[in-house]
Amino acid sequence: MRALFQHVATTNGVTVRVSVNFMPEQSRVEAGRWFWVYHIRLENHREDAVQLRTRHWRITDSRGMVNLVDGEGVVGETPLLLPGQSHDYVSGCELTVPSGAMEGYYTFTRQDGSHFEVAIPHFGLAVTEEDEARR
Q1: Which of these, 3, 98, 125, 130, is most buried using a 10 Å CB contact count?
Q2: 78 belongs to a structural domain
Q3: Positions of the chain with pLDDT under 50
Q4: What does pTM read for this prediction?
């Protein structure tokens, strides 16, 4: 997977970086299943510690079908980020069409218990000609 982060958003001093890759070896195109892996890095540029609590995803496929996903933490974790720290994780998304997009937000908690949202940048899920050639 490429280490280059293609999509970046900063909200309230927290930066979210996203890199996404189509995974032909995990897709079953003949069965109408396309799979992408995305790598996310969360960076705390604030002067206080913050903890990720929840996630909200809006996944839209090329037909306009929308799937909302809400849950606690990310991949089973609710990382605490001290000032200057980052947290990386990898997850995936499967669609029944060859393209779509994802975006959303995380909810973080400050040390005083108050909450704030951090934008996840919009990023596309698409099969490129290069991806088709690898299949």
Answers
A1: 125
A2: yes
A3: 1-2
A4: 0.91
